[in-house]
Amino acid sequence: MDWHFRSRSHQCNECEAAFEDEQPYHTILFRGMESLERRDICPGCWIKNHKAEPGKIDGYISNWQGVYEVPPPPPPEAIQKDNAETLLKKMIEQNDPEHTEACFILAVMLERKRVIKNKDQVRQPDGKRMLIYEHTKNGDVFTILDPALKLTDLGQVQAKVAELLEHGLNPQTETLPEEETGEGEAESGSAESDDESQPEVAAAADKA
Ligand SMILES: [Zn+2]
Questions:
Q1: Cα 194 to ligand 1 centroid, rounded to whole Å
Q2: Residue 3: is it exposed, middle or buried by C-beta count within 10 angstroms (0-12/13-18/19+)?
Q3: Ligand 1 centroid vs 23 CA: distance in angstroms?
């Protein structure tokens, strides 16, 4: 699968001219030797090399125009807790087919919040729909497979996403049923009261 972030280039990938803040550029997404690749192109190179026939590039998938923004400085403090954005990024990097549905729901959530934008959708040879997203601020591009969720499965997947957002992406918490931890606490509670009664029992035994 092509689940990798493709970050926006800071220069034209053809003439190597640096992009300036708020200048337009074009992106071509194509299937490279091993995975999905992107090429970011300045308006001059676009007109000269691609405008007439953007699809002539080998493995062509899609193209769009964007506006380059100088990246903001990194946030002052490291954000520890996962939010929808960091969780999605982690799951995409893990590339686990088990997370296909959760990734899709997160992408829909983030699109609603305008954190990411859907740039295109491509029907794959196997009939599945591949959605191409771009991060509105930093221009990262990634793809999400449409799991073609049934309405009846939606609640279950949403619950899983809510759980992932609360507890983070930790495989151990996924397999651990919540009830068990509850029982464990109850047991340790009763064990404590047993301990308290034992000195009395021991004292009684001494007296006898
Ligand atoms: Zn150029």
A1: 77
A2: buried
A3: 12
Query: In this model, does residue 107 exceed pLDDT 90?
Result: yes
Lowest-pLDDT choice from 30-39, 57-66, 143-152, 179-188: 179-188
Rounded CA-CA distance 58/54 in Å is 10
Q: How far apart are CA 38 and CA 1, in angstroms?
A: 16
- Distance of CA 116 from the midpoint of ligand 1 (Å): 26
Q: What is the mean pLDDT of residues 83-97?
A: 89
Confidence of residue 174 (pLDDT cuts 50, 70, 90): very low
**Token reading at 146:** 């449409």
Show the CA angle centred on residue 1, arms to residues 110 and 55, nearest 5°: 85
C-alpha of residue 82 to centroid of ligand 1, in Å: 37
* Structure tokens, 166: 């609360």
Cβ neighbours of 37 (radius 10 Å): 19
Label residue 18 exposed, middle or buried (CB < 10 Å: 0-12, 13-18, 19+). exposed
Closest CA to 36 of 61, 14, 54: 61
Domain ranges of the chain: 24-71+79-151, 171-208
Q: How close is the Cα of 134 to the center of ligand 1, in Å?
A: 21
For residues 48 and 75, the answer to whether their CB atoms sit within 8 Å is no
